[in-house]
Amino acid sequence: MSRLTATLVATMLVVAVSLSGGLFLVRHLGAKAFEARICAEQMEAALGAAQAMRADVEEMKSADAGEALRARLDAHAREAAARLGALSAAMADRDPSDPLARIYLAREDGAAALARRLLDGAQAPAPDALERDLDALIARLEQARPIHRQEAERSRFAARVAWHGAALGVPAILALLAVFAVGPALSRIETRARRLEEETARSMRLANLDPVTGLANRRRLLKSARDLATRAAAARTGVAALRIDIDRFRSLNQAWGHAVADQVLRHVARILRAEARADDVLARAGADEFYVIAMGEDAVERLNQLAERAIARLAEPMVAADRSVGEIRVAARAGIAAALPKADQSERTAEQLLVSADAALAAAKTARTRIEILSDGGREQIERRRRMLSELREAIAQSQIEPWFQPQICARTGRTLGFESLMRWRHPEQGVLAPGAFLALAEESGLIDQMGELCARRALAACAAWRAEGLFSGRVALNVSARELRDAQFVDKLAWDVEGAGLRPEDVAVEILESALIDDDSDPIIRNVAALAAVGFSIELDDFGTGHASISNLQKFRVDRIKIDRGFISGLDRSARKRKLAAAMIGLARSLEIEALAEGVETAEERRILTEMGCDLLQGFGIARPMPAHMARAWLLGRRLAVAAS
To answer: What positions does the domain GGDEF occupy (predicted)?
Structure first.
């Protein structure tokens, strides 16, 4: 080999080694810069989630923690925990004295330990404890913020210098040192960087997925709904949302436990995945709230068909993992709403769409139908509901809720033995409204408790006044909702109101709908009814015979009176079958030594037939229509004068 050739080969070798060493150095510092940047981004996201939790806790302290708020709090806690878990993994190889390692990895008050406590605390929120841990976590993360920024800046600067050095050429000896000194460290850093990327991806999945079903959670649902609305606006087409809920899910959870309830939720998710298209948005927003959002001109019809198929499949028997439970059949209801989004209003459209789907589901529950589709006037309907809700709150504040009274008379003598108290709303613009106009909304919103209490107190006061005048010695019957009967304090509160009016429990009847006894959560209702009977209140079973296990209900507690539903009374004189059914119910009451009251009596012939059958009491338009307290007093006075005249 000539001297020139040897010189060229040696020079090329030195250059190659120099470039190789320079590139090793660039890769090393570049990996460090990437790791520092990802760590800083994770810290900012964790801090944002913690601050969002702080806002949730503030809201929780000023209002009842509803299902949506709890779900939001849980989602924020999961995101904070997932991101801080990724950060902790990235800090694991650092020296324990490193400032960031101390912030994240301290056993008791490190950021990762605090995040785990917050995740546990979000399952059963105690606002004060959460507040303390959140303040500590936010302080830790704000302490870490400048250190992360400093590390990211320093690493980025070093990587930039190394790159320019490699481009300009570095001395061979430095390149060789870089190859041997930096190589092993580079391998460790790249491994750590890959781990951090994987943890970041995992944390993002956890922050956006429901852990039970694997569907999108509420947070992801809102973002996906906005994205779909944006796409629909660009394509000039519509979007539709389906919300589907499981009937009596809370009762199922209480009866069979969380494991079986979770199995049911996963079963619902599998069915929805099988029925939906690949580009549809599927989510579980909390409890038994499932959503499907679709785009296209046929979205409403497609979601309607999807709901029908899903509800039919859910009704088929499912074998529970717990063999003691056996087969489970799930009933469900659905609400569907649609929207035509505009390009600049996708966020508002998405939120309104979900609210409209919720309203459609509420309408399905009220109407006891399987599926309800919100019509074109759905938004106006929602706005009317909101206005009525505001007016109902004002009605309570202004005492516009009042009792009207319908007499209950002895079938044989015609003597007034009682009154049923019926709720009315004296609306300042629309006049007197019957319960059909507002009761469903009052029960759904929870205002029925206050309304029932206000109406009962006024009814008791009127009854006490009539007794003081010697006009009346019978009982006043109060209609009580299932929601009121679930209240553990209801019996004590009613007894207190009765005593405050100067009456005894024996002067008051509590009227209970049979349907309340098969409610999702009937156990506390049955306990309260038994307690009312034990105190001395008379118990009336309303709408008796309408298909809700009527006879079995008579075994659960003492019943003093059954009210035969008007459906068996109307047209009694024209239907032999109705006469036989009515006679059977009156005979059953007599054999059990309880009173039978026929409601909905409208004609003299119906009154005659029922009296001959041995019915104890009669009520209906054929006796008297419901009337306000002052007219009921006048009616009593007129009856007394008629008796005196005879």
So the answer is: 237-376
